[in-house]
Amino acid sequence: MRIGVISDTHGLLRPEALSALRGVDHVLHGGDIGGEDVLSELQELAPVTAVAENIDGFRCGDAGETARVVLGGVRFFLTHILDRPHRPRPEVKAELRRDPVDVVVFGHSHLPHDELIEGVRYFNPASAGPRRFDYPVSIGILEVQRGRVASSRFVALDVRSETALAKRMNQLSR
After folding, report:
1. Can you count the helices (H) and strands (E) in the chain?
2. Predicted structure pTM score
């Protein structure tokens, strides 16, 4: 199963993002969607699980502040604002203690992140919307096989983002 991960579109769904997500079985959106039209376009590609956040008024279509979904036997938890993977917000920590997951998808920082901490993968695809600073513009792809994430990768949506991905990767744990 191929899962596309996107976040921080802020109302801008780039053609490069749509192209990179073609063929996925499911799309996870990590928040700051920027409008129900973004979700509608993504739903034309595959089913979507999304969370809304500050720019969405904490609601966008079916998206609320958090979401859970099981895909290919992998348990996902989505939240927009995590803070840092080694120090999640207290609300997120409590939620994960209450009902453990395999992958936490988050956004907000616009920084790419892919780290395994105590058996949980923390994944932020960076921003796919308007560029901020020298941060990358990208999406993520997770391959799920036999109930686990077999591989993960980032897809830069422009040439400049290729080096920015390497430069900014996992800065939230430094």
Report:
1. 4, 12
2. 0.96
Residues 108-130 have pLDDT tens digits of 999 999 999 999 999 999 999 99
Q: In Å, how far from its chain's centre is CA 21? A: 13
Over its C-alpha atoms, the chain yields an Rg (Å, rounded) of 14
At 81 the pLDDT is 94
Cα–Cα distance for residue pair 11/94, rounded to 1 Å: 31
* 42-66: pLDDT as tens digits: 999 999 999 998 788 777 888 889 9
Query: How far, in Å, CA of 81 to CA of 73, rounded?
Result: 25
How many Cβ atoms from other residues are within 10 Å of residue 143's Cβ? 14
Give Cα 32 to chain centroid, integer Å: 11
Tell me the HSE value of 138 on the side-chain side, using a 13 A CA sphere: 28
The angle at the Cα of 47, spanning 94 to 85, to the nearest 5 degrees, equals: 30
DSSP 128-141: SSS--TT--BEEEE
